[in-house]
What does this fold into?
Amino acid sequence: MTPAAPPKRLFIKTYGCQMNVYDSERMADVLAPLGYGMTDTPEDADLVVLNTCHIREKATEKVYSELGQIRLMKLARQEAGGAMTIAVAGCVAQAEGEEIMRRQPAVDLVVGPQAYHQLPELIARTHRARGERLAADFAAEDKFDALPTARNASGVTAFLTVQEGCDKFCTFCVVPYTRGAEWSRPAAAILAEARSLADQGVREVTLLGQNVNAYRDPDAGGGLAALARALAKIPGLDRIRYTTSHPRDMDDELIAAHGELDAFMPFLHLPVQSGSDRILKAMNRGHTVEAYLKLIEKIRAARPDIAISSDYIVGFPGERDSDFEATLALVRQMSHASAFSFKYSRRPGTPAAALPGQVAEEVKAERLARLQAVLDEQQVAFNAAQVGKTLPVLFERLGRHPGQLVGRSPYLQGVHAQADPSLIGQIAPVRIEAASKNSLSGVLVESPVQAPALEPL
It folds into this structure.
């Protein structure tokens, strides 16, 4: 009898967005039949995968720094008579494949975000020391068709990719070049994956896409609203979220669905990027501040309890003090539950990289600090406003303290409460008693079986 091969160890480090988290999970799925099990440390791994993000320059340089450290681990493994395979995946792989191989020869293979389903074949080729080392062509349809139909859920919440790519070509963004054109998965495949997740105890899914509200079922033609309505009918799937959206694709049907579907969580991330029409035009965003505010007004009319999150970029080329002050004015008018804010980062190959009027780093840093002070104040105020309310909380895991569970409110806030572990995977009412910038804490309300309705904000 042939002895069983020893298990292989896989380490994946994920950078960037939720879509990369999803992609990393699917990489583990396609590699499992080859005998790869996960390990928490790269030193112990037979295969190290860095799943990269190309949005900001510092993130890219972190990848190269990480590769330098992993190279030393690979050399140590070789000196001990073993072997380690190093793979770079994701958007940096797509944009800088040849450059990665030039700068770090220890890398064995490079896999773009549309080609990770080819990992088993590429690894086999690498082990045979022949064949292609790069796989970075766009072929989203092939990727999803080649993935295993079964997917192992790792908790009570899960990411679910429904759309990839973007056709908007914002002048600061590399996504159209690294993820390709907008492409949507068939609704039937998404629903099958969601049913499988629900059967494994997943209670909440977050639908992912670089421009997720541009989703359009290629078979039936329905949009994101139709998909959400179908998902809401799956038994056990109680919560639906989605990210990231573009204001230009926030149509009336999707807005109406927010008011009609209990499963749609009252939290919307809708990036605006700037409060200056002049800068929005230079960014090629395709909307004005007035149009964005009217859109928010329609959304809040349909769902009065909805909380809004957004993205802001400061220091875009040509941004004047008056443009930045317009952004601060918009932020104050919006009153966000949370928001992400960044200094403009010059990305090679994007139109904005060649624009005149590049803003000095010290000016960008000063503007970002002022903006984040206002955003932090709003987030603290939003969380503090939940004190005294009873919120339905989906408990996800054990907390750090004995007897404590951690869950999420409908507004995506972390919530801590003393509760029995049997409530993991359940939605229960919690009376909020304290708030910080990043989380809430409260007391489990025993009496009401049904979670209370949320109050208008």
